[in-house]
Write a structure and sequence with these properties.
- This protein has helices spanning about 25-30, 45-50, 100-110, 140-165, and strands at about 15-20, 30-40, 55, 60-65, 65-70, 75, 90-95, 115-120, 130-135.
- A seven-stranded antiparallel sheet has the order 1-8-9-2-7-5-4. A two-stranded antiparallel sheet has the order 3-6.
- The chain is of the alpha+beta class.
- The longest helix is centred in the C-terminal third of the chain and has 24 residues, at about 140-165.
């Protein structure tokens, strides 16, 4: 039996709530695999993320000393944090299983591979998660081909919409 709120209507399933997306990542890289990782954060950083105050556009991940690290993420200081706010641009440890870290380390040793943050979000249990992608860099002609394909798909969709009117 589904849970019902005060008004008798069904409550929406909480699911995933996106905080920030790295939209340029899919333009700059071919994403081969994706992984979900936790992030080691302080309390004021989590409260700041609840205000959707985060920027991951120039972020990247590294593996150093058998640990995964997130660099370049800017989490704005919490508005009511005071002295408990930490450096907004500090590096943060990623929480992954040992096998995943070893697998990623082996893949990153190959030429042209990178670990790119794609999205930061709250999961269904209100934990902050990061979707990271194992990626290969695109060449300029790959980016042009993607843009041309996207433009042609858009024109086809417009033409079909006009035909159906």
């Amino acid at each position: 039996m589904p849970k019902r709120g005060a008004g008798g209507a069904k409550q929406a399933k909480p699911g995933k709530r996106t905080i920030a997306k790295n939209r340029s990542a899919r333009h700059e890289y071919f994403i081969d695999e994706t992984f979900e990782a936790g992030i080691e954060l302080t309390g004021t950083e989590v409260k700041s993320l609840r205000e959707r105050a985060c920027q991951i556009t120039d972020a990247f991940c590294l593996i150093r000393g058998r640990q995964a690290w997130l660099h370049g993420v800017h989490i704005h200081p919490y508005s009511n944090g005071g002295v408990w706010n930490v450096d907004p641009d500090r590096k943060r440890r990623l929480l992954l299983h040992r096998r995943q870290i070893d697998y990623l380390d082996g893949k990153l040793r190959q030429k042209g591979m990178a670990l790119v943050p794609l999205e930061i979000y709250f999961d269904e249990h209100n934990r902050v998660k990061l979707c990271i992608g194992l990626a290969r860099g695109k060449k300029l002609y790959d980016k042009r081909a993607d843009m041309a394909r996207r433009d042609s798909d858009r024109e086809i969709a417009r033409a079909l919409k006009e035909m159906n009117r």
